[in-house]
Write a structure and sequence with these properties.
The complex is a heterotrimer. By secondary structure, chain A is of the alpha/beta class. Helix content of chain A is about 55%, strand content about 10%. A six-stranded parallel β-sheet of chain A has the order 3-2-1-4-5-6, sandwiched between helices. In chain B, about 50% of the residues lie in helices and about 15% in strands. Chain B is built from eleven helices and six strands. Chain B has a six-stranded parallel β-sheet with strand order 3-2-1-4-5-6, with helices on both faces. Chain C folds into three domains: about 5-75, no CATH class; about 115-160, SH3 type barrels; about 195-270, no CATH class. Helix content of chain C is about 65%, strand content about 10%. In chain C, a hairpin with a 3-residue loop joins β2 (about 125-135) and β3 (about 135-140). Chain C is of the alpha+beta class. The chains are: A alpha/beta, B alpha/beta, C alpha+beta. Chains A and C meet through α2, α4, α5, α6 and α7 of A and α2, α5 and α8 of C.
Chain lengths: ~300, ~280, ~270
């Protein structure tokens, strides 16, 4: 941990520092009035990530093909909507239980627009229960836009976008009620879910619907994997909109994330090797301690 | 696609229901060896100097109270027994009744004085935004307390905290989901160097692994962790013995529940392989 | 302008919060005062808090609007919607009355707030509404709003302050929530029976790991496996699960970071339906 409370115990001129460690102490001390020194590594990481992201987006806009591997769950979306159309039953889309400020909910609205376009093309009703009044407004807009994208603005039914309750299990019970009464043939769960995930997925399974789930919420992934037909997991969820739309800016973002992950793996390997190879009981600065100071 | 059940699922529910309720009603408590994170949780509180100030956050609701309230209850006993000063806050709107119930029943047992040894600040709206405000300045977050509505500076305990959360020795959060420990860590702990302990539900416990052992010094995971912790705290606290016994009885029933589910897995696979052989 | 103003607000607020994160920390020893960025961040946090609180009011307004509309349209679930609205407002009114007991007219307090009882050491009971406690005793008011004589602490055996709000909370709301949550246990049982089949190598590994973890976490399971389940479970959790959790957390965080950057820089406009 960098100590910025005390002045370094040597003249402030950087050139008089006795070694790496003192030099870094002095630099931190001089930077402290302008920026929190222990957050420099974070700032550099964000700038590098942003640079890679914009470079990838420019590359994608120039028409360079950036492949995204096939996500089985997304292909299943079309299959699910088609099945609901054949059976003459609606599609149920659950956009998660969090507020609009949650990134997963924002992505869910983008996916909802795509699903709404598909259901409007096929003439299949789509029901969207929400837990939050603001999310309901966004969901209405997403479905309306989806219907417009399909050239079927008349397919939008406001009463199918329903605000049930802000209370988690009351919302869950409300969705279970919709499943029992309206018997959707396809259930799509996209967003942030909590304890109600398994209750929803299991109730949906018992109703005989085909189910596709997507969430980045680690705790609920096992519940969806056990009870749903297809599950989009973790960071795949953030790749969904890029996969669906192939929009250059989104594809570029995915590529940037992958590049940073490879860089992070390299950093882990180097750091682990340095920590393992560091001489035991060393008192002066070692490569390992410098590395830790930069990235720790 | 997951296979349909070979028989009515209600038999599974009936079996589980009878097993758990029967064992809970007629079974006897069984002790559990403490897990390492539970021991670390206990040791972290034991290591706090007397008179330290701890922020104790109740971040749960009735749905998870069966798992989490024993943790909260035991932790408060432990803190008061160690003469640690406690500030109670809540970030879930349904949590204040539990917090109030615990403080009101436990504080008199240790002759703790309100305002000097403990203060209840209550629920603050805003989820993780509220946590950010608490981290930046407890005084701005809570101009008054929850019980008497007196100003912040009228309480000696809060005056000792000062304006910044750097006056806190530790944060202890008993959390069921959002907002909870995963939001406290970036908003308060890593930003202001406040060490943290946490108690969570079983499903959220794996999410704590990346943060342990720093900044999360120790944690109680699920009802198992709660029982193990109560076993550690109860010897010095007679009032906790019935709570510990109750939790041990629950764990005994839960243990058999785990066996029931493993048996269901085995049975399900037997049925699966037999039907595959028949189909072949 | 309808599109540009929200984007501009988003960019400005986002950049201000990011700037506050990297702003230098105050340091009294060096004479570094809290920076203006921290002050701006504090203000934005309070604004955010107000918005979250407003969302509660918005939720109430929407519940009323939507359910009233469906009641008027003679929806088939009309009785349940009536129960919902009546119970919501009843709890709201009772709760508000208890919070502002001292400021309300007496007739409202008598109707909505249960009377408190002070049980004295001599066996008598004083009924009224407790107003507060001083250093020397308890102050109460009677049903007509008149102040009763202060009751010294040393004469008091027990103070009973019943609360209709807490009764509803602990007798109705809490059991209902606990009931819904407990459904998970049953659904876990049926889901594992259905889903944990050894169809492939991966699913076999999954079910074996699940079984070992379940057995290792309870003493009876560990005893049945001769004491081997607990160490294997600890090994799986400390190595594989921890590593996987960290990897998923890093991956998810990068996704959040990318989207957050795009929103803060005004490049992500899906929240404007674009």
């Amino acid at each position: 941990m960098i100590d910025v409370q005390a002045a370094p115990p040597f003249p402030e001129a950087l050139s008089s520092a006795a070694g790496w460690s003192q030099w870094m102490d002095a630099v931190s001390w001089r930077l402290a009035p302008y920026m929190a020194p222990d957050k420099i590594a974070t700032a550099v990481a964000i700038v590098v990530f942003a640079w890679i992201m914009f470079a990838s987006q420019r590359k994608a806009k120039r028409g360079v093909e950036i492949p995204i591997r096939r996500l089985a769950g997304l292909d299943a979306l079309d299959e699910a909507i088609g099945r609901a159309t054949e059976m003459g039953r609606p599609v149920l889309y659950v956009p998660g239980t969090d507020e609009i400020k949650e990134i997963q909910t924002i992505y869910s609205m983008m996916i909802l627009r795509h699903v709404a376009r598909k259901t409007a093309e096929y003439g299949t009703p789509i029901i969207v229960p929400t837990k939050n009044a603001v999310v309901m407004a966004f969901a209405e807009e997403a479905v309306r836009q989806g219907c417009a994208d399909a050239g079927r603005p008349d397919a939008f039914v406001a009463d199918n976008i329903r605000y049930l309750s802000d209370e988690q299990f009351a919302y869950c019970a409300g969705i279970a009620g919709i499943m029992y009464r309206e018997k959707p043939a396809a259930n799509i769960y996209m967003g942030m879910f909590y304890a109600e995930a398994l209750i929803l997925a299991e109730t949906g399974f018992l109703g005989g619907a085909i189910q596709v789930a997507g969430t980045s919420r680690i705790e609920q992934l096992p519940a969806f994997v056990a009870a749903c037909d297809y599950t989009i997991m973790g960071e795949e969820y953030f790749a969904v909109t890029a996969y669906l739309t192939r929009e250059p800016s989104l594809v570029g973002t995915i590529r940037a994330g992958d590049v940073v992950k490879i860089a992070a793996i390299a950093l882990f390997i180097v750091g682990t090797w340095l920590a393992t190879a560091a001489p035991a009981g060393a008192t002066g600065p070692t490569w390992s301690s410098v590395y830790q100071r930069l990235f720790g | 696609m997951a296979a349909p059940l070979a028989f009515d699922r209600r038999w599974i529910y009936l079996g589980l229901g009878l097993l758990i309720t029967g064992l809970y009603a007629f079974g006897s408590p069984s002790a559990l060896p403490p897990a390492a994170p539970v021991q670390e949780y206990y040791d972290a509180i034991e290591a706090l100097p007397e008179g330290s100030i701890v922020l104790l956050s109740a971040d749960f609701d009735p749905a998870s109270a069966a798992e989490l309230y024993p943790m909260f209850y035991g932790t408060l006993h432990h803190l008061f027994r160690r003469n640690i000063r406690v500030i109670g806050v809540c970030t879930w709107p349904a949590a204040p009744p539990f917090s109030r119930e615990a403080f009101r029943s436990i504080a008199p047992q240790y002759h703790k004085e309100y305002g000097k040894d403990w203060v209840e600040l209550g629920f603050l709206v805003g989820d993780d935004v509220a946590m950010g405000i608490i981290g930046q300045s407890l005084r701005s977050a809570y101009p008054n307390d929850a019980l008497s509505k007196a100003p912040y500076d009228s309480f000696p305990l809060l005056r000792d905290v000062g304006d910044s959360s750097r006056g806190l020795s530790m944060l202890i959060t008993i959390s069921a989901g959002f907002p909870g420990i995963l939001e406290w860590i970036p908003q308060l702990c890593t930003r202001y160097d406040v060490p943290v302990l946490a108690g969570t539900t079983a499903v959220q416990t794996p999410s704590l692994f990346p943060y342990h052992p720093r900044p999360l010094l120790g944690y109680l995971g699920s009802a198992t962790g709660a029982t193990q912790y109560l076993q550690l705290v109860a010897p010095g606290t007679p009032a906790l013995a019935p709570v510990r016994d109750e939790n041990q009885r629950r764990m005994m029933a839960q243990g058999w529940g785990h066996l029931y589910i493993v048996a269901l897995i085995v049975l399900g696979n037997i049925i699966y392989f037999r039907s595959r052989r028949r189909a072949a | 302008m309808k599109r540009e103003i929200p984007i501009l607000l988003t960019v400005i607020c986002g950049l201000l919060v990011v700037a506050a994160f990297f702003a230098p920390a105050p340091d009294a020893a060096r004479g570094l005062q809290p920076s203006v960025w921290q002050a701006i961040n504090s203000e934005l946090l309070v604004w955010g808090q107000i918005l979250v609180a407003v969302a509660f009011l918005l939720g109430i307004a929407n519940v009323v609007r939507i359910n009233l509309r469906q009641i008027a349209a003679r929806h088939e679930d009309r009785p349940y919607k009536i129960v919902l609205l009546v119970s919501m407002f009843a709890f709201l009114i009772v709760g508000l009355a208890e919070m502002h007991e001292r400021d309300l007219p007496n007739w409202i307090v008598r109707v909505l707030v249960p009377a408190d009882h002070v049980f004295m050491k001599d066996g008598s009971v004083v009924a009224g509404w407790v107003q507060g406690a001083t250093q020397t005793g308890i102050t109460m008011r009677d049903g007509d709003g008149r102040d009763l004589p202060e009751i010294p602490h040393e004469q008091v055996e027990l103070v009973s302050e019943p609360s209709a709000k807490m009764w509803v909370y602990f007798k109705i709301f809490a059991p209902l929530q606990a009931t819904m949550f407990s459904l998970l246990a049953f659904y876990v049982a049926s889901a594992t029976f259905r889903a944990f089949r050894a169809r492939s190598l991966e699913s076999t590994l999954l079910l074996m790991a699940g079984a070992v973890v379940m057995l290792g976490q309870v003493p009876i399971g560990n005893a049945l496996t001769g004491g081997s389940a607990a160490p294997v479970e600890a090994f799986l959790m400390d190595n594989f699960v921890k590593a996987a959790e960290r990897a998923i957390a890093i991956g998810g965080s990068l996704g959040v970071l990318a989207t957050g950057l795009r929103i803060v820089l005004g490049l992500e406009r899906s929240y404007l339906s674009e």
